[in-house]
Amino acid sequence: MEISSAAKVGIITMIAIIILALIVSQLGQWKGKEKGDEYYIVFDQVGGLHQGNEVRLSGVDIGKVKEITIRSDGKVQADILVTYKGIVLYTNFLYTVSSTVWGESWLEITRREGGKRILPNDRNMMVAGTSPVIFTEVMRQGKKALDDLQKAVASINDMVSDPNVKTSVKETIANFGVMSGNLKNASATLSATLENISSKISSAADNANELMIGLKRNTGLVGKDLVAFSKSIKRIAVSNEGDLRVIVKNLRRSSENLGIAMKSIKELVSKNQFSDDLLQTLDHIRKTAETVETIAKDIQSVTSDPQVKEDVKVTIHEARKTVEGAKKLIENINGPISGEPGKKKLVSVEAEVEWAQANGTSSANLNMFLLPGSPTYLKFGVDNVGHGSFANLQLGKRGKNFGGRAGVVRSNFGIGLDAFLLKDNFRFSVDAYDPRNVKVDLIGRWNLIDDFFIMGGTRDTFNNRTTVFGVGKRF
Q1: Range of the domain at 259
Q2: In angstroms, what CA-CA distances link 142 with 136, 138, 146, 147?
Q3: Which of 76, 91, 205, 213 could form a disulfide with 115 if both were Cys (CB 3.0 to 4.6 A apart)?
Q4: How far, in Å, are 173, 212, 350 from residue 112 at the CA level?
């Protein structure tokens, strides 16, 4: 039987409808079977995030929002499906709802260090999300800030327009000018005082050196006379010439005087008031005392007088004490205190020129050290000469490799720490000063030859850091 055209159209239509239904059915099944890892995030509010919105990690699409539900506690739970392979999420990541001004929203995930790995498809592991900032809230806060700003401006205008305030400001500026002038005068006075102290110390050192030279010369003459006297005593003792008792008493008195001289020199050493000539003087005293001891022993061997023997015994004892004392003082002076055995200075000076890298300006630093080779010393001088002149006046304590200072640091109260490395060829200093606005300087100095050195570091390291470098010399 022949099928009519209308029937054919109807059959084709029915077949198309059936095929379309099958296609829609399959698409629904595929949609329901979309593969990926589910994660669960809880928000206080999501601000327009909807099911199907994108999920991004560091700006890259990795999935979508599968479902959004309101929980019994009033919070909002967003279930997300991550389809991007190899993604691992952690509890410490930042989960934020982001949006554009046109209303497009998405869930943004930002990486952060630490946290615990989240197991996918585990509803017991829920992570807290960050609620978005609502535009209306921003506007409300902005309006409040503008209102507060207007009130502050009005208050400032009222204050500035007050004639009393204007007068006070003018007086304050004038006072600052007076204070600046006083500080400049104080700086000039301090510089003059330091120069005066320096000249007096140099004069005292010269007088001490002259005293030591004279003492050395006189001690040498006494030693020569005692040697000649020893020969005469031996001859007299053998031939029974003269009164040995008187001679021995004089010899005993000489030994006691040597002991007194030793005590005076010991006090000078304890106060670090000595020069290189003192070593030679001590050596002469030691040799003289040994000569006295030898003479006394010679007399003791030839006399039988009990009184003479007693005086000789005392003389030998005093001479021996003088010899031992001289030896100990020589060893003490020759001991390493400042890395230069046998040398101690009363005063040393450090002069240096430093350049600031930031602005290319240069300034000079001039500091003096009183008793620089001793465990306790005094530092005083001026930094930044020509650009403000900062005063230094510090009491220092020095150990083998480390030392500390306290007092006036660059015209402010402060402290300093020093490290002496590589056999004292490198000195690293840390200075902290100005308690109201703490500044920290980190400066290193490397010794070259002939007491020249190079320096470098930073001034005010943690605020307005300035890199400096320069050269200097010690005198």
Answers
A1: 204-334
A2: 10, 6, 6, 9
A3: 91
A4: 52, 75, 52
| Cα of 399 vs its chain's centroid, Å | 17
Residues 84 and 5 in one domain: no
Distance CA 215, CA 377 (A): 27
pLDDT of residue 314: 73
Same domain assignment for residues 252 and 363 = no
pLDDT of residue 147: 75
Give the count of domains, the chain.
Answer: 4
Q: Are 317 and 375 part of one and the same domain?
A: no
Are 352 and 385 in a shared domain? yes
Helix axes 277-302, 306-334, angle to 10 degrees: 160
- Measured CA to CA, the distance from residue 290 to residue 322 in angstroms comes to 9
Contacts of 378 (CB under 8 A, 6+ apart): 369, 370, 371, 393, 394, 395, 396
Residue 245 has φ and ψ, to the nearest 5°, of -65, -45
Tell me, yes or no, whether 226 and 328 share the same domain: yes
Tell me which residues of the chain have a pLDDT lower than 50: 30-31, 241, 274, 335-343
